Amino acid sequence: MRELDKRTTVRRRVFLRGAATAPAAATALAAGMTIAPDAAWAGDLKAIKPATMTVLARAARDIFPHDRFPDRYYIAAVLPYDDTAAGDAALRKLLEEGAATLDAEARKRFGRDYIRVASEEQRVEILKSMETSAFFQKLRGDLIVSLYNQKEVWAKLGYEGSSYEHGGYINRGFNDIDWLPEA
């Protein structure tokens, strides 16, 4: 069975971009949290407000939680919305209003914006109240592709990618099952 690299890597540019923000954001980055209200990565957006994008990234982590995934995978999963929303006013409106609804619901229930609700259980409670909304369905549906189609995520999950060009799974991974007890 092949060994997979399950270490978390942070590129220099991402580290410097996050560390250049307010001390609170630098502290959050050091703790592995780059989804913050004043995140530097959200400052270069063209169509979507930075506050909206950070809410989308936090919601992405709450919808598809993986404790071993660094925030950068969730950020990468929602960043394409900015390019798409630049040419699609309906999408921009859906995302902006959806994030505003998450914030309003969080303030109503817990007295703070969604991104500042510390408890994952409380944020999930808010998301569950919105799971039939067009906003939630759009976000969840898009995240299935944008999060899990990142090659770096594949390694974290133990998926080695397509085997067709390597002779198929019979020669590449067919007997790599390590979670079944031996008979």
UniProtKB/TrEMBL annotation:
Lineage, highest ranks first: Bacteria, Pseudomonadati, Pseudomonadota, Alphaproteobacteria, Acetobacterales
InterPro entries the UniProt entry points to: TAT_signal (IPR006311)
Protein name stated in the entry: Gluconate 2-dehydrogenase subunit 3 family protein
Keywords in alphabetical order: Signal
Organism annotation: Paracraurococcus lichenis
Signal peptide bounds: 1-30
